[in-house]
Amino acid sequence: MAVPAASGCYVGGVRRQLRDGFGRYTYPNSFFKYEGEWKDGKKHGHGKFLMKDGSYYEGELVNGEIEGNGVRYWASSGNEYCGQFSQGEVHGYGVMKYFDGTLYEGEFNYGARAGHGALTDKQGQIYRGAFHNHMKHGEGELFYKNGDHYQGDWVVDRQQGHGVMKYADGSLYEGQWRNGLFNGQGSIIHCSGMVYDGMWINGRPASEATKLVILGEPIQELVQGSPFTIEVQLQNNEGEVMEAENGRLLQIWAGVKHIQLSPNFSTTSLELPEDTEEPLIETPYGYNAISYPLVEYVPDLDKIASTESEIMKIKDIEGSGSKLDFVAATGSVNRSLNGEEDSVPVLVIQRAERGYAAFRNIELALPSHCYRPFMILDELEKKASKKSTSKTLSEKGTESQEKITESRSDVSIKIGRKTKSGTELPSIRLGEYVIMVTDMTSPPFLGRALPTAFKLLKVVPKKPSKTGARKEPHKVLSK
To answer: Would you give the DSSP letter of residue 342?
Structure first.
């Protein structure tokens, strides 16, 4: 702000006495008023300028110019500054309080924020670092109101260059930025445990996983009673494996076809357990499925744990570079041991590494005597058998087989097994099961969960063995 001149003048060739000391002066235009110290006819020392619109300056003046420390208030904007001035301009170190609640403390260069300073905006976010021409420019850090924290390079008010962002939820990104977004080489450790290290374009991975793919044929045969392995890849739309991804949490589980009973079908003769309604799972095979748990394969049935206190098993697979977490879960399908006590089934959870995961040494759980879908299948078999008693043996065999096959969706034939003590054990039903692998990463990585992958598993009878010995574990899939 330039200070209007108000010095002494000559009258009749005689110079009048120059103002000196304290005094008040009103300018001819009446917009400015000054009261303060004078020296040799110039405003010098401490003084105050009052303007007609309510604006003012109060502080130091040198030889008629605002120079030094002072306070300036602008009535038109409501802003107020306290700090250093030079040649009438805000210059040097000071504090600017803006009308909207923003506060800046730091260096100015002739009216503009420049140099090092701290800016607290009206949302409560705090930036500390370098400025140029009012904008964040150079190195600085920003504390967000929600707890996020960025430290790194800025260009024209945006994150650009190298920077580190620590999110309130625990996620951490370090790498290159452009226009306020991840751009270039960078890595993120997501709060879900997932890690991505690679190239980024406009805030997203340059090539990101879009689907889960179960390796092998769409339908795989499995010998009854054998364990199996399911291998999964994380792929993009082009079918490329996303090796830059690590730690995505995947869950494998099984299901059987949901049998839609007709209104005329009566279940009064069945002692169905209460509160057994389970959510239906939509599959790509034209029918809905009901969950059928998986268990860890145990070769010796007599050594299977039967107490519900064993709710968690964690097994490290040496040499595979991966870890299986067997998480306990309740359910109506248990691995029966003696017909009275059931073990607790498990859901198999694993984290993918370099875009790949393998669920090893798992098997279908042995059915409980009260598993609803199989109880209904048994009842359908009985009804089909009764209806065909009046027919010829050939007709009976044909029609009964057709009805059973249709109603149970190829899940049929129970072959009993016995323990060493002679107790009859239920066995895995032969037929078709649905294997599913679901992205359980929580919260979803970058707000997007991968769709569930499906595979059909067809259980076939075990071929008779001359020695009677049990076969070695059979892998359904191999990488």
So the answer is: B
Spatial distance between the Cα atoms of 390 and 189, rounded to a whole number of angstroms: 69
Q: What is the CA radius of gyration of the chain?
A: 40
Region 394-420 average pLDDT: 46
Tokens of 120: 């607290």
Q: What is the DSSP string of 8-33?
A: --EETTEEPPPP-EEEEEE-TTSSEE
Give the DSSP letter of residue 302.
G
Q: Which residues pair with 254 in a beta bridge?
A: 292, 435
Cα–Cα distance measured from residue 159 to residue 202, given in angstroms and rounded to the nearest whole number: 12
- The separation between CA 218 and the C-alpha centre of its own chain, rounded to angstroms, equals 30
Which band of pLDDT confidence, cut at 50, 70 and 90, is reported for residue 356? very high
Buried b (16+ CB within 10 A) or exposed e, 348-358: bbbbbbebbbb
Tell me if residue 406 falls in helix, strand or coil.
helix
At 15 the pLDDT is 54
In this prediction, residue 409 has a pLDDT band, given cuts at 50, 70 and 90, of very low
CB of 362 within 8 A of CB of 293? no
CA dist., res. 356 & res. 330, Å (int)? 28
The 3-state DSSP composition of the chain as helix, strand, coil percent (nearest 5) reads: 10, 50, 45
